[in-house]
Amino acid sequence: MSMRCVVFGATGYIGGRLVPELIQAGHQVRVVARTPEKLAEVPWRDRVEIIRGDVTDRDQVRAAVADQEVVYYLVHSLARDDFSDVDREAARLVATASYSAGIRRIVYLGGIVPEHAELSRHLASRAEVGEILRESGVPTAELRAAVIIGSGSASFEMLRYLSERLPAMITPRWVRNRIQPIAVRDVLYYLVHAAELPADVNRAFDIGGPDVMTYLIMMRKYAAVAGLTRRVVLPVPVLTPWLSAQWVNLVTPVPRALAVPLIESLVHEVVCGEHDIATYIPDPAEGLTHYERAVELALTRIRRADVPTRWSDASTFGAPSDPLPTDPAWSGGSLYEDLREQHTDADPDTVWAVIEAIGGENGWYSFPLAWSLRGWIDRATGGVGLRRGRKHPRRLSSGEALDWWRVEYIDRPHLLRLRAEMQLPGLAWLELGVEPDPNGGSHYRQRAIFQPHGLAGHLYWKAITPFHNAVFGGMVRNITGTAERTDADGTVSTG
Question: Residue ranges of the NAD(P)-binding domain (predicted)?
Answer without folding.
Answer: 9-115
